[in-house]
Amino acid sequence: MGYNILSKIIEFTDSEEPLEKRLENVGALLLNFFAFDQCAVYLLDREERKLNLAVAIGNKLGCQQEYNKDEGLPGLAMKHGKPIFATHSQPNKELWRGVFDQGALGFATVICCPVKDDIFYGILYLKSREKKSISPKKKKLLDVIALQLSTAIKNYECIINLTHTNTKMKDMQARLIHAEKLLALGEMAATLTHEIRNPLMSIGGFAKRLHQQLNPDSSQFMYANRIIKGVERLEKLMDGIVHFSKKDGCEFSTEDINNIIEDAALFFEDDFKRHNITVVRDVALNLPKIEADRQQLRLVFNNLMANAIQAMANGGTLTIQTRHKDNWIVTEVCDTGGGIDPKIMGNIFNPFYTTKETGTGLGLAITHTIITNHKGIIEVNNKMGVGVTFVIKLPVATICEQLAVNSEQLKK
């Protein structure tokens, strides 16, 4: 009988089903094998040092959702690293072996078995309303079962960690590819600036002179006007390339992110009104400062707000949020413009990629570069049919930088 149940548990734990389903199958099998009323599996949250309920099978009366590391019989089993087999002549008492455990209230027999090998993973908690004796053979079998459970949990955690690592590696690879594109663009920009800018200015200047001298009703007037507009577009593209590839000239200072965002929002105030866009500001007060180039960071928010206005040409809501999380100042710029087509999501930060007839395809590329140069992170949460949220994370200025700013303010 022992061999049969162990074989079945190995089959359950080695399956490709989600961990929770595997634990449920094992719990149901143990409940039947020991003829108990309740079987629960608690998994350890290593950060908070708590045992959280993963699954509960059978009568769930009194089954606690969590135990602290020193709480109840699970905490005691965790502390000593050994199984607890206990019976109580008064099931309605909450005190078991001097330990307060409300989860055991109403039960006469409990088994609290650590799930561990070299590392502690959780607790297997079995309860019965009747007094039962557990044979030495069943106790040994339970140790083997707990060890098998620990192996299944370890394998699951390894798969999760490998998946997470693989995702990070793919992200790093994408960043490297993007960096190579930026490097190539920088080399190209130096050549373009020298070879194209001066002739372009001459073309634009002469076209404007002709435009002023021609009769507005003549076809030449229309051609000159088209040349001027074409030159302006090329100049805009050139300015974007130069700004995009520029690696020096940054003037970092300790800044208030809310202040920079407000400057950008005021710049677009008339555009918001004209397009019937409601701006919701949900900013946290007294945020720690960031170290930033104020002009470049304002350009970031200018680009994001300009894109949001284009996406909500017929009205909508622009929500701007700021908050402090860990060592980051997090800003979210969220619009209700219908979102970005998932097919092009992978290209939105690529230089020169645009779906707009008059766009240069450099706005988001410049934004990405500026945030990267600030040692920050930019993420996109896209909901097709709803809108898009750009999440910008910038590191909090160091304590020394904060103190320097405070000192300067006191001098003033």
Fold-level CATH name of the largest domain: Beta-Lactamase
State the helix count.
10
In CATH, the architecture of the largest domain is: 2-Layer Sandwich
What structural class do helix, strand and pairing data support?
Answer: alpha+beta
**What coarse outline follows from CA principal-axis ratios?**
elongated
Cα(first) to Cα(last) distance is: 84 Å
What integer is the average pLDDT? Answer: 84
Structure, explained:
It is elongated and about 110 Å long. 49% of the residues lie in helices and 23% in strands. The chain folds into three domains: 2-162, 2-Layer Sandwich (Beta-Lactamase); 174-245; 252-411, Heat Shock Protein 90 (2-Layer Sandwich), CATH 3.30.565. Helix 6 packs across helix 8. The chain has 412 residues and is of the alpha+beta class. Strand 12 (316-325) and strand 13 form a beta hairpin. The longest helix has 78 residues, at 136-213. It has helices spanning 2-13, 19-34, 72-80, 136-213, 219-245, 257-267, 269-274, 294-311, 363-373, 399-411; strands spanning 38-45, 50-58, 66-68, 84-87, 95-96, 99-100, 109-116, 120-128, 252-255, 277-283, 290-293, 316-325, 328-334, 377-383, 387-395. It is built from ten helices and 15 strands.
